[in-house]
Amino acid sequence: MVELSDIEMKEVDPSSGLQTTGTTTATSKDDKKDADTLTLDDIKEQVRTIEKAVNSKESRFILRVLRGLASTRKRLNEDVIRRLILFYYGSNSTEREILLGFAQSVSQPMDVDMEKTVSSPAPATNEKQSVSRPQTSRARAASLPEVDLYIHLIVLLFLIDRNSLKSALDCAKRLVDKTSVLNRRTLDLLSAKCYFYYARIFELNNMLDSIRPFLHSRLRTATLRNDFEGTAVLINLLLRNYLHYNLYSQAQKLVLKSVFPDHASNNEWARYLYYLGRIRAMQLEYTKAHQHLLTATRKAPQQTAIGFRQNAHKFLITVELLLGDIPDKATFKNPQLKRSLDPYYQLTLAVRAGDLSRFKEVLDTFSERFQQEKTWSLIIRLRHNVIKAGIKMISLSYARISFSDVAQKLQLDSPEDAEYIVAKAIRDGVIEASIDHEQGYVQSREITDVYTTREPMNAFHQRIEFCLKVHNESVKAMRYPPKKYNEDLETAQERREREQEELEYAKEMADDEDDF
Amino acid sequence: MATTTAIDTKLKEALPIYEKLKNEWSRKPPNVGKTDELLNALKNLFAEGGFYPSDSSEDTRGLHVARDTLEIAAQCAIQKGDIPAFERALAQLKPFYFDLENRIPESPYRYLLLGLNLLCLLSQNRLADFHTELELLSPKIIQTNPYIKHPVSLEQYLMEGSYNKVFLAKGNVPSPLFTFFMDILLNTIRDEIAYCMEKSYRQVSLNEAARILYLNNPEELAEITKKHGWKLEFDQSFRFADNQIKHENERVPADEIATQMIQYAREMEIII
Predict the structure, then answer these.
(1) Which residues of A are less than 8 Å from B266 in CB distance?
(2) Is the ipTM reported for this complex over the cut 0.90?
(3) Are residues B74 and B84 in contact, defined by beta-carbon separation less than 8 angstroms?
(4) CB-based contact (8 Å) between A448 and chain B?
(5) What residues are paired with A400 via a beta bridge?
(6) Residue ranges of chain B with pLDDT lower than 50?
(7) Is B86 domain-assigned?
(8) Domain count across chain B
(9) What is A398-467's CATH topology?
């Protein structure tokens, strides 16, 4: 998910960079200025929302701000960052110097020419602003660590996008240090985001293995503090970390020993299920893996996060093939997935045809790509699925066939091989047949009508269960207005009390009558 | 400071034993009992001296000695046929092979022992663990290294059902140490083949059954037939027709259907 948004960013950046460097005409300069001011205003609005969230202790608002982070991120540039820092930090604050330092570390290697055009008018406006509203903003920034973190996070994102990894690393370290000192529940969502980018930066710097102890200790704290968002993000980061180095046994242990919080956001759930699916697939538990990966693709955002969906689909298709199913053709036709899934389409065709030489060809052509995508080790396991598909086709089309013919058709080395393979296929229930060893042939049995068995019932049962599960999960995923639930309960209780009273009243009446 | 001197003294203590161990092990054939004794003495020293991997010490001499000793321990365990001991040694060796990769030069035995470990897992049918271990190795190594390639292709044969290739593979093991696990593996496979025969063959003669199971010895065959409950018919053959009759038109599974329906009703209730 992250990789992709980064690619997107890289595509966007040069064009905006060009725009800024090529500001020879006055009109485009003004446009840009307006856009900057707009962005700045948006961020200020977001900061106000954060303040509101802190004051009312409603973390929902922070969630809203963070959801807007992606679009804010695309609009950042040096000017916005500088004005932002100057606006929120007092002139004598050390924080301001440090953050400005980070921001400047980016602009130095960039085009000098732009520096000239922009910096000459910029200080004037900056000073005006910092002079015009000095007291309030300064006091605020100091009083609310949430705002401080948010701005720091924006600076960090900016650094990541500008690819200045070294200073981003320092910046991230500082940021995370800040989060570890504080213990405020309103910070949870923000710090979860911080961890995420912290790990991302280390990954970009290829130092992923060095932060494992840090993540573990943070995970412990987050679990103890019941910080569910933090826990979810940290578990996912650790899993990503382990799987990056193919440490499946460690990842498996982490999954066993930790509980993924139910309340975590959908995106975190999607990530978690994706990692879980990968672990299970590796351990040959394909049914479970399939379930997890399918849910992951469903939970993932449907419009954005193309990279994540591409990856999840790659694993999903491979696992489906391993299960002996043929993936839906519509998946390959999806315009967003089509290109990246092409090797997997070729693979599916080979498996479906039960054609070993074609399978080998696909494996050879795309071997490097599969290895890079980490599906290679799963794909080489497909070989016996290809053979099974081949045997199935032979069994369907021939009533009786000799082993030497089977060997020839499946491109096996010898008729003996064929005999053992067919025997195993019969035992695994791939085909219905029996072997005549003396004569050296395999005879297919009459195919029984599936509808006389319990197969259809089981299939229906599975689907009904799935639908019910989806329904229950969606009910759980809905957000209910706070305290509404409580009110309802009270009225119900009141009603009961009322009924009780009425009952007693009636009883009294009856007693009265008895007395009479 | 105190810890480093402790390591030094322990190292001095350990080195002569280590030399002795190496001599003992390189003798042909090695004296397993004696080696074991030396190994135990060394392992105690390691535990006290802290030779086992940690981030703190820069000194890699201790690590070297510890690794080589563990390698001998693993090979010695195979000689004795002690699988738990082998697994223990491998578990201790893995940090040396993977986490300390960059700190000490690669051991010539690395892939031999990792390959043995894979085969060990395979022979016990622990496929999930097998694949977990395999993921730690790069695709290139898997495809080219003879020690690793051997168990990997065995696993493939097993999955496909080309059992005769497994029997053939016994003839070209990359190291004599592999034979120990190969024998275990072949026994597991014989059982597998026997199951397949029950399901797929109508009848098979005594001699052919022995050939299919790769058995030369009538006693072993008798053992397997007894285990699977096969009966020898008058014409010196086994018949398996009973196993293949489908039990069709079985009774209606009332219990199961009832529970399912009640469950649906419950869920519907919740929805409404």
Answers:
(1) none
(2) no
(3) no
(4) yes
(5) A443
(6) 1-4, 53, 55-56
(7) no
(8) 1
(9) Arc Repressor Mutant, subunit A (1.10.10)
